[in-house]
C-alpha cells in the first residue's frame, strides 16, 4: 500500500497497518519479554506516525496538495525526515532497535530488521529530492558510527544484528539524495544477507556468541555459510556486500563529500570487527581448543531449507 500509493494518507495508512500487523507476531509466545518489546516498538512507531501525520497536514495546509512526491515546505520535510529516522531506527533515535530485537524470537526479529524497513525506505526514496542534505548526512554518519561502536561489547547475536541494521540504515540514508537507486540496491543486498543469517540461527536455535563454537558440531556446512554471509555483510571485497559500499563511497567522493566518505569507511571497520569476532568464535574455536560452552555429542541435524543456499549464493555473488 505504501509503495504504490501517490496520496499521503494512503501511504500513512500503509505504515500504520505495517506496524499493527507485526505486533501479534512479536507477542506470539506470550511472555513478559515479548510483550515488553512489542509495547516499546508500538510506542516508538506510533510516535513517529503522529509526527508524519502532523508533517503531512502541515505540508497540505501550506501547499494545498496531498501528492507524495512534493514536500515543498522545508519544515514539513525536516519533520518527515526525523519521523522516518525514528521508524527506521537511525541514530539518535536508535535506542529501541537493540532492545526490541533482543526481546523477541528470532523469526520476529528477522521480520523486524528486514521487511519492516521497506515501507519507510520507500517513502524516503520518493521524497528524497525535497530533503535537507546536511540533516541526512548527520543522521547517516551518527548511525554508522553508533552502529559500529554499539555492537563491539555485545554477546547476544540479535543485539549485534540490530546494531548492524542501524549501521546499514546509515549507509542507505547518506546516498538517498545523491543516488536513490543505490539505496534500493543496498537495501536488497542487506535484506538478503540478514535473512540468511537469521535463518541459519533459527535452524540451530543459537542466540549467543559462545554457543557458536559448537555450530560446526551441529552442521559444518552451516558454519561455512554463516562465515561467508557475515563477511559479505561486513563488506569484504570479493563478496556482494562490498558492492554497495564501494559504489556509495565512489558517489560521495565524486560529489566532494570526502570527510563523510572517510567517516563511513572507518565506521565500516568497526562493523567488520564484530563480524570477525563472530566468525572467530564459530569457525576457529574448534575442538580441542578451550571454550566455556557445553559440548554436544548427540545432536539432531537441522532440517535443510532451500532458502539458505540461495541466500548464500546472493551474498557471495561477486
Automatic annotation (TrEMBL):
Q: Which InterPro entries match?
A: Complex_I_Subunit_2 (IPR050175), NADH_DH_su2_C (IPR010933), NADH_UbQ_OxRdtase_chain2 (IPR003917), ND/Mrp_TM (IPR001750)
Q: Which residues cross the membrane?
A: 6-29, 41-63, 75-97, 133-153, 160-178, 184-203, 253-276
**What membrane topology term does the record carry?**
Multi-pass membrane protein
Subcellular location, record wording:
Mitochondrion inner membrane
Which Enzyme Commission number(s) are on file for it?
7.1.1.2
Principal localization reads mitochondrion
Q: Which GO terms describe its cellular component?
A: mitochondrial inner membrane
State the family named in the UniProt similarity comment for this chain.
Belongs to the complex I subunit 2 family.
Q: What does this protein do?
A: Core subunit of the mitochondrial membrane respiratory chain NADH dehydrogenase (Complex I) which catalyzes electron transfer from NADH through the respiratory chain, using ubiquinone as an electron acceptor. Essential for the catalytic activity and assembly of complex I.
Record's protein name: NADH-ubiquinone oxidoreductase chain 2
**Organism for this UniProt entry:** Isoodon macrourus (Short-nosed bandicoot)
Amino acid at each position: 500500500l505504501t509503495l504504490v500509493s501517490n496520496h499521503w494518507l494512503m501511504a500513512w495508512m500503509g505504515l500504520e497497518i505495517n506496524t499493527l500487523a507485526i505486533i501479534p507476531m512479536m507477542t506470539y509466545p506470550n511472555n513478559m519479554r515479548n510483550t515488553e518489546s512489542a509495547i516499546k516498538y508500538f510506542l516508538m512507531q506510533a510516535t513517529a506516525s503522529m509526527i508524519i501525520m502532523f508533517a503531512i497536514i502541515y505540508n497540505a495546509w501550506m501547499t494545498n496538495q496531498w501528492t507524495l512526491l512534493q514536500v515543498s515546505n522545508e519544515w514539513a520535510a525536516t519533520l518527515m525526515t526525523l519521523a522516518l529516522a525514528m521508524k527506521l531506527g537511525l541514530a539518535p533515535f536508535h535506542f529501541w532497535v537493540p532492545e526490541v530485537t533482543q526481546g523477541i524470537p528470532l523469526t520476529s526479529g528477522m521480520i523486524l530488521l528486514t521487511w519492516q524497513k521497506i515501507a519507510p525506505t520507500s517513502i524516503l526514496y520518493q521524497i528524497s529530492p525535497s530533503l535537507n542534505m546536511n540533516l541526512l548526512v548527520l543522521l547517516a554518519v551518527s548511525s554508522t558510527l553508533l552502529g559500529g561502536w554499539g555492537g563491539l561489547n555485545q554477546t547476544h547475536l540479535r543485539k549485534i544484528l540490530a546494531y548492524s541494521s542501524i549501521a546499514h540504515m546509515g549507509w542507505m540514508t547518506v546516498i538517498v539524495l545523491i543516488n536513490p537507486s543505490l539505496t534500493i540496491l543496498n537495501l536488497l543486498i542487506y535484506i538478503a544477507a540478514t535473512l540468511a543469517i537469521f535463518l541459519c540461527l533459527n535452524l540451530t536455535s543459537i542466540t549467543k556468541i559462545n554457543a557458536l563454537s559448537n555450530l560446526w558440531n551441529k552442521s559444518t556446512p552451516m558454519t561455512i555459510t554463516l562465515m561467508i554471509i557475515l563477511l559479505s555483510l561486513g563488506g569484504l571485497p570479493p563478496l556482494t556486500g562490498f558492492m554497495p559500499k564501494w559504489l556509495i563511497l565512489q558517489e560521495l567522493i565524486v560529489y566532494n563529500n570526502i570527510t563523510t566518505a572517510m567517516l563511513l569507511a572507518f565506521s565500516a571497520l568497526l562493523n567488520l570487527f564484530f563480524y570477525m569476532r563472530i566468525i572467530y568464535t564459530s569457525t576457529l574455536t574448534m575442538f580441542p581448543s578451550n571454550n566455556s560452552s557445553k559440548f554436544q555429542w548427540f545432536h539432531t541435524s537441522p532440517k535443510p531449507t532451500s532458502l539458505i543456499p540461495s541466500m548464500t549464493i546472493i551474498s557471495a555473488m561477486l
